[in-house]
Amino acid sequence: MAKLMIEDLDVKGKRVVMRVDFNVPQNDDGTVRDDTRIRAALKSINYVRDNGGMLILMSHLGRPKNPDKAESAEEKAKIIKANQKLRMDPVADKLRELVGGNVTKVDAVVGPEVKKAVDAMKPGDIIVLENTRFHAGETKNDEALSKELASLGDVYVSDAFGSVHRAHSSTEGVTRFIGKSAAGYLVAKEMEYFSKVLENPERPLTAVLGGAKVSDKITVIDNLLNLVDTLIIGGGMAYTFMKAQGYEIGNSLLDEGGIDVARKAMEKAKEKGVELLLPEDTVVADAFDANAHTKVVGLGEIEPGWQGLDIGPKTLEKFKAAIKKSKTVVWNGPLGVFEMEPFAKGTKAVAELLASSPGITSVIGGGDTAAAVTQYGLAEKMSHVSTGGGASLEMLEGKELPGLAALSDR
Asked: Which CATH number covers residue 247?
């Protein structure tokens, strides 16, 4: 991952096209509810401004629909109205508040209006383009759009890790028609920590996998079994592993397509000498409800009408013992239905253990795992919390991410 970093660029007097992740949660009135992602980009933004550069910022927001594909005038009107809430104006307002002025929002992704605004820029100025997904060519990695975006600047900076696994015009295509392309501080940090896990981890290396479906993580499991010393399986996917071993799982979540995957994973773990840890007991409930009746049962003791929603106390102690012996832990997927307090104990306990273990390098995958450690107020005590759920999963799968591969080599 020897790619150019933002500090390798001479940005003085240059126009810097930067892809950021401003896909932020919004209030009903369209204002920004949580500005965490905007704040995460400030280090790269301020580097360019402090060094005399000019910034053209690109981001998507939500999943706007194309009104031209509507089947009726009524449907088209609804799409246009819904898309109005996905304009970048509130995001630009929040950014202006955070950086103290010099932020201009333009109402297009490319075109004469954008070019006029860019031509008038002075060092320290920031332009926020309209939602990149308002342009039909963005997700198609359209060459014409990529060239137009590239024409706006002298160099390119990627600082949206949550989008680097997508080959879109603003993440990959633009790099083919602009000068140098570098990683911003946010992307550089992601690359650094995932390199530590995947290329040169301090051992023992333990991976903790949770979440729902085994089949969603086939490649992740297969790749991690080539890398880790210990693999811990929890969350909804654990019940598919139990079923693969012949245990009764009642009404627990079952990924039928993942049963064979689970069997092969257990066989591969034996072949590789990887310690594969599965639940010994589980917290079950008679309904998927925070107010349901609950009890703790052992392997094969889940009765019809009951479902497993968290790891049990024996399992938690076994998992914690393995984690305590580790030097590096990568964690992707909660260990139970953490959104409901009765089934959050396993996830919370592991999060607290990692947060209180400075001797362990802890890399938290994005998505639900990041949401959980943030909910518990522990995110800042982890070594690294990824900003990209899909991108972090693909990194763990060993895939080449197009938005990273496209950056200039050092």
From this structure: 3.40.50.1260
